[in-house]
Design brief:
Elements lengths: L1 H12 L14 H21 L3 H19 L5 H20 L6 H11 L1
Helix pairs in contact: 1-2, 2-3, 3-4
């Protein structure tokens, strides 16, 4: 997801927020900011396994908006990949980061004290 988020981050940095879509009616720049937060920050934290479930929750919401709000009239071929991402992030939301995540390492350290 990070490769999709970096171009959006560049749009935000260069002040192009007003040209972004506004599917939830919260403002174009704020919608772009939330998308960048999900696709850049949450993707990075998910990669290292830090706050995995929270990051997955944000990404699930992001792709829920893409599939069911933004692309609601799109064909199956256009929605197939975002729906796949939605399901994968939903699975990560249910399972967590796993044995090699920072979440697991932190929880072990806290249990040992």
């Amino acid at each position: 997801m990070l490769t999709h988020g970096i171009p959006k981050l560049m749009l935000l940095i260069h002040g192009q927020g007003p040209v972004w879509m506004n599917p939830l009616g919260i403002g174009s720049t704020f919608s772009l900011f939330l998308c960048v937060l999900a696709e850049c920050v949450c993707s990075l934290t998910l990669m290292v396994g830090f706050l995995s479930r929270l990051s997955a929750l944000v990404l699930v919401f992001n792709f829920w908006v893409v599939v069911f709000v933004f692309d609601r009239d799109a064909s199956w071929a256009q929605v197939e990949l975002p729906l796949l991402y939605l399901v994968c992030y939903g699975a990560l939301l249910c399972t967590g980061g796993g044995a090699f995540s920072l979440d697991r390492l932190i929880s072990r350290k806290l249990r040992c004290k």
